[in-house]
Amino acid sequence: MSVNVNRGLKDDFYRYKMPKIIAKVEGKGNGIKTVIVNMVEVAKALNRPPMYPTKFFGTVLGAQTNFDKNERYIVNGSHDSSKLQDILDTFIQKYVLCASCKNPETDLHVSTKRQQISTTCKACGHFEILNHRDKLSAYIMKCPPNESATNGKESKKNKKNKEKNKDQDAENSDELNENNDTLNKNDDDDDWCEDTNEDAVAKRMNELSSGVNRLMTCNDLEKSSEERLQLFFEFVKKKIDEIGNNNCFDLNTQKEILLEAERLELKDKAVLVLCELIFNENIIQQIKQHRTLFIRFCADKPKAQKYLLRGFELTVKENEQKLLSKVSHILKEFYDCDILDEKVILEWSEKQYKKTVGKELAEKIHQIATPFIKWLKEADEEDSSEEESDNDAVVFTQRTIKEENNKPKDLDDDLDIDAI
Questions:
Q1: What is the CATH number of domain 2-150?
Q2: Residue ranges of the chain with pLDDT lower than 70?
Q3: pLDDT (0 to 100) of residue 405
Q4: 257 alpha carbon, distance to own chain's centre
Q5: At CA 308, angle to CA 302 and CA 312, rounded to 5?
Q6: Which helix (H) or strand (E) holds 127?
Q7: Which of 3, 43, 306, 403 is an S-S bond match for 50, by CB 3.0 to 4.6 Å?
Q8: CA atoms 236, 240, 242, 248: torsion sign
Q9: Domain segments of the chain: what residues?
Q10: CATH number of 225-419
């Protein structure tokens, strides 16, 4: 039986559903325990590791929790399903639902350096720092979502299931094709003229349109990366022209832009186009203005963040005279808006991508960024020595680089870190 993820909503057509908790009491005396039979399925519906709600049960009930090798999630003591379901509602309100749109389409992020837990909503883009001071928060800090106790087991299991599903889908597809061939032959014999009523014509037109769309998508994916970037450039440019250069995209437009990037298989490189079309000499204000759009592309995606840093460098090159001296402030704004992660920035500081803006300007950018990098390293207790090499040259799709004859400000002018 399924129930609404947000049980405060009584709408039978609410799209977000989860299985109702099934609890089974085992043992007697001091060894009595409650096994949550379907915790894996419930946690999957909430997009959280199964141990998180299990630990929350233990926190509220004052009981020990555990899981065994068969992925059975256990709470010590005797507890009925309805009681656990009520406690789960509290967990969902605190750790799953978006504070803005109340949808459960949130991703959980853990920053060990900042000692904070945050959520990003994929539905509305809302970002929130969770300030819950309970035992579960301490557990989440120790076991982030990507390092939770059962993720390894689940991922291996999912891989096997995916392989089985692929084989099964292939078999089903063959059977379906054979059945369709048989049906088509029978149709040819029994009904050799097409239905011309209005509904039938409309249905055929819809099928034709969807077929054309699939064909266009297929053809687009066969194009080179540069050609697909150009298609995405034109798509975003059209959206900007519709709203005006000084306005930000609404949530629906942001989703359309993200879907177009995914359709063209450009989700990481797409940020280069966004930088080209959105950023100019007012980049610091524009980062704040378009924060949710860039979070959609960059949250927990180091590769996209690296492309964003190259887009930032190219923006500085385009507006060298006005932006070169503000490099540290720009990086700080990306960092404060949670668009760029600390680790990615530190890796960028260790390697200059000279092919992006040229050797001389790359050296200047990194030199002026030194005060911010120093501040970042001093705030970080861990040594970020590893870096990923990427020697591919990246250029914008429709950018004419103008060389500035005026020299930038003296690089020896130190940036006041207190002002960052």
A1: 3.30.30.170
A2: 147-218, 380-420
A3: 40
A4: 14
A5: 145
A6: strand 127-130
A7: 43
A8: positive
A9: 2-150, 225-419
A10: 1.25.40.180
